[in-house]
Amino acid sequence: MNMKHILPAAALLLSAYTASAQLPPIFDQSRNATVETTPTVRKYLSPVKIVWQAGKEGENVINASRFLLKGNGQADLANKDMCILKSTSSVHPALLFDFGTELHGGLQIVTGMSKVNKPVKLRVRFGESVSEAMSDIEPQKNATNDHAMRDMIVEVPWLGKLEVGNTGFRFVRIDLLDDNTELQLKEVRAIFVYRDIPYLGSFKSSDPLLDKIWMTGAYTVHLNMQDYLWDGIKRDRLVWIGDMHPETSTISAVFGNNEVVPKSLDLSRDITPLPGYMNGMISYSMWWVLIQRDWFMHTGDMNYLKQQAAYLKGLLAQLVSKIDPVTNSEKLTDGTRFLDWPSSENKPAIHAGLQAMMVMTLQAGADLSKRLNDHATAEKCAEAISRLKKYVPEINGSKQAAALLALADMAPAEKINQEVLSVGGVKDFSTFYGYYMLQAKAKAGDYQGSLNNIRTYWGAMLNLGATTFWEDFNMDWLPNASRIDEVVKPGQKDIHGDYGAYCYKGFRHSLCHGWASGPTAWLTEHVLGVSVVEPGCKVLRIVPHLGDLTFAEGTFPTPYGVVTIKHRKLPDGKIQSDIKAPSQVKILRK
């Protein structure tokens, strides 16, 4: 028998059977359902440390060290080497686990054969810090279940498995709640949910602290690349367009073109018909335009840009109409006037910042309009820019407003840096607008000052145990502050629970916020020296600024492949560079 003829025939029969076979109704394509294709994976991680426990060792808590071993997620009948928690009417054992780094996801609990065949109640508390995982839902330090549940009572099965939680965390505390109960536990593991994407960009220098800061910013954004591009994985888990600008800058430097960016930009556009402003904030619609310009320059995706044409045209016309014809001042009064939280009570600064942002936005809008062959809109933007630049408001001591004025070419960058941005070092920096302060300092040529600021401000969070960058940080919080990975000692200040303001008071403060990733994008742009000159990265300019570094090297993703960059400082202070790029990418050195 000739098998060459039999096998194709069998394949045809199988194909015909599959096509004609009935499937359960749940698979019916007419069903009103959404199929998720987000490329996320689930990774199960054992804790690296047990930070704290309640209950007597060997009596209420037996063999807790077994949780540090690698698990398989499967209950079994062997029932060997279990951790046993035993409660009384007055003693309820508890354990606090450290999973080593900030994660997005939940918790898996695998049980054994306890003496009583019934569910057992546990309290599960997730925390971005030790103190948050140890906290109660109460107003004093603002521990909440806002946006994501982090404090809950669950029942675990007998000889089974429970998976619970969907939040941002590093620490988890579990408490046995039932009286006079014995619970056998085989495993307690973190469920790490993340986008399975490569880190195409990289950064390495003669300063390990800067390297760690670069990677921490990259990882912070990576965690927030979930269903959409969020600002925080504990809160707010929302698409905030203004927050996205530092994030998309980091994505371009680290991950390259990723569908989460246009997906999030389009969501905000589609749920915000004009004349509304994205997220209700005037500046956030302006950030949408700036992100569109930057994203087009990196990807060169003309088809995607064309999809924005109608909305872009309408938004630009709306902004142009908000300029006072006599004073040339912005008169944006039909939405929330906002730059960032630390500047939110400084109304003159917000006015100055919005004036500068109008210029920056209309410049980006004019560029995009020309590429879309909408020359009428481009001309309207150019005329409006010339009017806006005739009026330069006072900054009222704000580094946020000062940085924007410098970036908009409405004030000399060198003067802004000397008289405002460099005063007091990183005093009055913020995690969001710190990026634009660094950008303005770079425009002034103060690369060394920027490196010093990055080390001091973002480095301080790392010194406190951070593995991701925070929603906000203030250097005034440092004296006698606790680390986030330790139990707060008597007399110490709780760096997480005792500080914060506005929407981020106490434990509601997010310790993984993508808008704080600015140094990652900044180090790639100014130390590696990469700037995009032509859309799609067809032309890159690479001009390094090493400051006090002796070398810096790394990679930069483009639509055509990765550019490899190495810079070395020679004894005479000159920089020797070795750059390898795909053939489609032209490199300019000046």
UniProtKB/TrEMBL annotation:
List the signal peptide residues: 1-21
Q: What keyword terms does UniProt attach to this protein?
A: Signal
Top-level taxonomic group: Bacteria
Q: Which GO terms describe its biological process?
A: carbohydrate metabolic process
Matching entries from InterPro entries are given as: 6-hairpin_glycosidase_sf, 6hp_glycosidase-like_sf, Bac_rhamnosid6H
According to its UniProt record, what is one Pfam family this protein matches?
A: Bac_rhamnosid6H
Per UniProt, residues of the Alpha-L-rhamnosidase six-hairpin glycosidase domain are: 200-527
Under what name is this protein listed?
Answer: Alpha-L-rhamnosidase
Species this chain originates from = Chitinophaga terrae (ex Kim and Jung 2007)
